[in-house]
Structures are given as C-alpha cells and as structure tokens.
Recover the amino acids of this structure.
C-alpha cells in the first residue's frame, strides 16, 4: 500500500493543521522588540538573516548602537513546519502572518527592518499591527524620523485591516483648574500645532476596518506651563475626541 502524502489531504484539512501549529495560541499576538545590545552581540551570528539597524541609547539617548529585532517570547508557535519544504512554507506562511497581531510597542524602529525581511506575499498577508507613540514632551528628532518613515512604509506597502495605536500620555493625580477635554472638531486645528505632525503621518494609513486607540497614561505633577497643560488635556482626550477624529480619517465607512 503506497504511503499517504500530507498533500493528499484536502486543502481545508491542511489549513486547519497550519492554524493549530501557527495560530492556535491564546493571544494571537507576537511581541517584536529591538534586541538589547548584549543579546545582539551574543546572537549576532544567528541573527545574520535579520536586517540590522542603529538606535539611540544611553542615559540621554545620545549614543548610537547597532542591533536588530527579536521575538521576545514564543506563545506556542511551531514555526519549524515552515522549513519542511517550499510548498508547505508557501501555504503555512500565509496562516502565520495573516492570523497573528504583530506588536511592536514603542520600538517603531524595528517595524521596517522586520517587514522588509519578509517576502512580499508574507508582508501583504499581515492584517494587524500594534505600535505605540512616545510621550510628546520626550520625542526627539530621530523619533520623529522613525515614526514618519514607518507611517509612510505602512501606507505604501501594506494592506492592514486593523491598527492598534497606543499613545503615551500624562495626567496629574488630582484635577487642576485648566483641565479641558478636546472634542473631535478641535483636532482640525490641533494637528497644525508644532509637534503634532505625527498625527497627519499616521492618518495617511487608510482603509482600516478597525482602529483601536488606547491611552497609556502615567501620573505626573500638575502642569507648570501652557505646553504641559496642553499635553495633559490632549492625554485626557486620546480615547475620546482624538480617537473619533482619527477613526473618521482612517476607517472604512466612518464619516
């Protein structure tokens, strides 16, 4: 009796096998981060297929070092199946990239190297990405450049259905006199303020089915300047007026 081949199974059954191996974990989220300098040096030989890039580090982020991206934990994926043969790789890679959320947190500098290391079919299979914008008072020029490049790359080269956008904000533990919430209509003017260019850049990503905006709020003292008062009012408006403003620009069917 001839041996049965895996490819003699119906494609629907093979698809279920791939899902169990590559998408059957609890969170369906893969956390990708910039590798620490120590880990990068230790793993440099095994990372030779990954694009390297430079980041700013040190106490005042004044030192440039070379590193790459890494998956910080494996939630139970059995990716070794991709190496069995080319046909399995072709069929299974779509399941891997289309079924999982790729979460980069604040390490936006890792987004483009990771995506560029994929084949075009794998890259286009990705439907869900999470990124986080740093707190506005602490954004440096190199942060602005990374953010701009990532937004442009996603807008031009991806077909996302869902974007998870986290924004780090600050609010005082107690209310203060100038506290105010910005409504959706106010952001037509706010995006023209200095330092708010990043909003137009993220808004260049169109055609989403879902935009999940989350405020990552940290407590701080009451503001001592108009600039900090604005930032705290903005922080309090992230999941309200700001989210409504961006959804209208980025999500299909919202106007």
């Amino acid at each position: 009796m001839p041996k049965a081949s895996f490819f003699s199974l119906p494609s629907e059954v093979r698809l279920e096998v791939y899902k169990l191996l590559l998408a059957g974990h609890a969170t369906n989220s893969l956390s990708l981060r910039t590798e620490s300098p120590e880990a990068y040096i230790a793993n440099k030989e095994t990372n030779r297929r990954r694009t390297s890039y430079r980041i700013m580090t040190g106490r005042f982020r004044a030192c440039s070092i070379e590193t790459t991206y890494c998956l910080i934990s494996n939630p139970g994926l059995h990716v070794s199946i991709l190496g069995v043969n080319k046909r399995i790789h072709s069929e299974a890679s779509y399941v891997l990239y289309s079924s999982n959320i790729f979460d980069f947190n604040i390490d936006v500098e890792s987004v483009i190297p990771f995506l560029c290391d994929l084949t075009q079919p794998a890259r286009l299979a990705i439907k869900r990405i999470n990124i986080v914008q740093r707190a506005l008072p602490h954004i440096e020029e190199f942060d602005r450049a990374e953010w701009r490049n990532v937004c442009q790359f996603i807008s031009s080269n991806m077909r996302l259905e869902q974007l998870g956008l986290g924004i780090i904000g600050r609010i005082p533990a107690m209310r203060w006199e100038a506290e105010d919430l910005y409504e959706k209509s106010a952001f037509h003017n706010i995006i023209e303020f200095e330092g708010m260019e990043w909003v137009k850049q993220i808004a260049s990503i169109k055609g989403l089915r879902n935009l999940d905006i989350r405020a990552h709020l940290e407590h701080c003292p009451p503001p001592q300047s108009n600039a900090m008062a604005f930032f705290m009012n903005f922080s309090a408006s992230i999941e309200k007026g700001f989210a409504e403003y961006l959804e209208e620009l980025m999500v299909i069917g919202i106007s």
Remarks:
- The CA atoms of residues 10 and 16 lie 10 Å apart.
- The chain is about 40% helix and 20% strand.
- Residues 226-250 form the longest helix (25 residues).
